[in-house]
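Annotators were shown the component list below and the corresponding predicted structure, then asked to write short factual statements about the assembly.
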Amino acid sequence: MEGTVFNIQRYSIDDGPGIRTTVFLKGCPLRCPWCSNPESQSFAPQLSYRYTSCLKCGACAAACPNGAIELLSDGLSIDREKCSACGTCVKACVNGALELKGSVMTVEQVWKVIRRDLVYYETSGGGVTCSGGEILSQPDFVAAIFEKCRGEGVHTCADTSGFGSREALDKILKYTDLVYFDLKHPDPKRHAELLGADATTVRSNLRYISEKGVALTLRVPLIPEYNNSAEDVDALARLARELAPGAAVSILPYHRYGESKYAAVGMKYALGALRENTEAELERAAAAFERCGFNCEVSR
Amino acid sequence: MSNTVNRNEIKAVRVLTPRLQALKAEWEAAAPQVYVDDTLLFTQSWKETEGLPVDIRWAKALEKRLLECPLLLRDGELIAGSLTKFIRGNGTLCAMKPREIMKMVESGKFDRKTSDISSTNIAPADLDALKADAEYWIEHMPKVSSVNKSVELEMGPGVFDLLFDRGMVFEGRGVRYEMDRGLFQNYSAYGGGVAQVSVKCVENGLNYVIGLCEKERERMMAEGDENSHGTAQFLRKYWLLKATVISCEAFIAYARRYAALAREMADSEARPERRRELLRIADACERVPAEPPRDFFEAVQCVRLYHLVCWKESSDRPEVPVGRLDQLLYPYYKADKDAGKITAQDAAELLGALWLKIRECENLVTIPREQRAAPGSLLPNITLCGTDADGRELTNEVSWLVLEAMAQIKLSEPAIYIRYSEKTPPEFIIHALECNREFGGGNPAFLSDALGTKRYLDRGVPIEDACNWNASGCLGYHLDSLEHMGGGHNISQLKVFELAMNDGFDPRTQKQLGPHTGDAREFTTFEQVNSAYYKQLEYFTPILRKFKLLSWSTEIAEGPMSGLRVAMQYEDCIPAGIASREGGARYPEGRACWLGSRGLVDLADSLAAVKKLVFTDKKTTMRELLDVCARNWENAEELRRLCLAAPKYGNDDDFADEIYDELSLRVPEIMQAEVDPLTGKKPLLFIGAAAGHVGIGSAIGALPNGREAGSPTCDAACSVSPGMDTNGPTAAINSATNDRYAYPYAGYAMNMKFSKSVLNTPEKLEKLGWLIKAFMKRDGWHVQFNIHSREELLDAREHPENHKNLLVRVGGYSAYFIDLPPGLQAEIVNRTMHEMV
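Structure shown to annotators:
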């Protein structure tokens, strides 16, 4: 069983209880403009170029079999159409400026990384989180990883946007201890426009998970100008009460740590000059969820 | 004993009361002064005691200083005991290293061991007196080094080429050839080791110890002494016991001088409140250290006096650990609290007062700053928590209050070490991390309670003794009242490796220092590389051992004696009649046979690079790699980058870790292969860290791990090389902890750097607590965390004036970042920061 992974993060402390290893899968059907992992969106491996590490030696351009790289005076110009992400240039780069984002891994390979930190999971009540990308796009792979974890007594957390088939969801839920479920926008129309994903599927999956009684945390990315208004957060909280009344809620303040990664994989950051949330906005959002009966924390 | 802790009461304490704030501000603002009275008194005493037995001369020299040195009790001070007459004074003894002091006199630049090191002032009259004193000692010091003479007689002159100032196969101050040791062959009264606040002495009172000495003298005169019949040792013991009595009585008299001063000040004090405080000091100083303290206040006053008098007696290298302060003070605290005599707030203020008095102690140093082992470090370590012989966990309310004192006072020292066990209350660990985050400076550090005790048990020490260890020196530890540590002799593994790569020839000194182990440029297998290195190590180890033995044998013949140290180890030193530093301690191995090894991480990374690039991937050849190292990577940027990208220890990467593990097994096998002749026991092995890494780095050329010639080596024995760990903290810990090999005696500190954002919520602090727990579960020994942002460090390099209080953890100590030499600063900035985005 194989899947495409773009990062395995150890000592992951923001993706579930305890000390965890988070497996980030590559490929996502959504296009949230605030996405902080742009390299997770495409399903195929991608060449990433870190300008600050580039020695401008031109070894990569010489090595590229597709003629996709041109050395200019201020760095590389990469023709993404021509690039096949074959990795030849990465091997030629002596300073680690070029990197391939995403590689196909077997469950066994992933497990080899996971198992190195068993003592930390055990000590801290931690475990493994599969995140994305979108895990529902690679359900068999995630299910196989989680099945292996379950067999070894490792806690599993599935971090999902909820956009995927019921069948995919069921495969994963079978071995899942905790679900992290994104709640992004209250208005179905805006949801579809903004994210490129149908809200009905997401909501139906959320209700399904909730009714199944799997431990559930709702994660609400709070993005100024997108879902940050008093009306939006009230509507989100009411929606949450309707679909998943027993869930915990965690508010994720907007940050722009992902911005530099867009350029590296040849993408544009759509939220250019968006400001961060104010403290009052974060509190207002938390209060909205609390009024709807949730325990709500703001993730810092 | 169940120690229930009232957290709310602790949380509410304000350590820096207005009074302490004022005292702290006054100290910080005070111009540092060179203090000369003690050295003048010492010299005067030495002239007066000419002809007396040497132990008596040492005791008299302490007595003279304690009876005649000026006293200082500042307005507002709650406890008495100042090192000098200045608010911020720095002293030394000319007798120890007169030429180096003369250099300071001539240059007018007096270095201290702390911040703003070159701005110490001296009054013109004091300068003249110091000059005359240094001149006297230059004239009267031996013209030759008897250590060197004895070593030369037995080992030939070639051995000196290996020493710290020459080839630097052996490194550290203990193995310098050029040494300015004045009259004496060692640094201080403790022989390069430490004397600490002794719990047994505090609890029994020094009158008890004086009584023991006197009884023993009477007994031996009446019945003879079965330990020394018919030998000169009888007389040595006779005089040693007398010297011990002189020292103890001088200490008591010194305390009573403070009592008299406080009483006199009280007489003319108009403010009733202050008058009461002065009288309380007077009562306490009349009582302690002669008799046991009667309450918490007297116990704190007593601790202050012990720390101070040990410092004065040591004079030159006063690394005086405070020891297990929470265990010492808790019985007094609890009794007073139960009786309604004090509150947590009262105790917190007293601990704060003690903290300031300990921190005030500074001294002049004469080693150039960039060569200094521990810049800014005075090493008054405090140890907290731990388990007792029955496995009970001992964290108590005083442990909590000491943490508060550290966090609220925000000074570079004392450093706190927590003896971590599975039973340490998790909320205590989290609070310690919180304090670290607020305070910076990597303080407190965590030591494995189980491992510390186990190492003693493995040496055959019974559990009652074994469980009572505390942190001392920069990365050591020892048993209170039972053990004399100090004076390790180190080998630089990187120099050994460099020699192995050059057929025993040292490129820096252009001398054949080691045996011929083959031309490495012609090696065709990795095994040949490995084998050449181990052959060199096998050659140098017995030389180091013999060198240590011979140095020590002559040191003890001429070195200083400490009456207080005998008193503190009264159970063993008094019946034996042997001074602590001469082996009278119950467990003398730490003094006698401590061998050190430095540079393992760089060595493992270098071997990994050689194995990977030359023999596995065949990207370069031995010849090319060694040639490029020889010219310090000149025109070989690409090869250097390959070397930097080769597998590195600290990433949970088996390729590099297996090499590190093999070194961790085989180096001790070689260095501990033979028993130490002096003790008949296996030598203790120190796998060292901070103290030598700048020094040894300066003598070593470029290495295959990508390191440039002359730069510092990795700062700790199991920390990852700066910036080389890229798989996060669990991977680094997995590399560093491994139950496949037995840990050596000491060292093995793990420095980790975290960004504040990883610790900004209670949940994340809790997760770091679990990381420590897992570290200890995996048999880790010592871990400490630097918590700050990289921006902060970079800015501090640019604008030191804005970061005067930025504390960082280096090895076994915290220091002000702006005081560190540039190389060390760069290294700290480059340490990988574990940061989550």
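Statements collected:
1. The first helix of chain B runs from residue 7 to 11.
2. The two ends of chain B are 45 Å apart (CA to CA).
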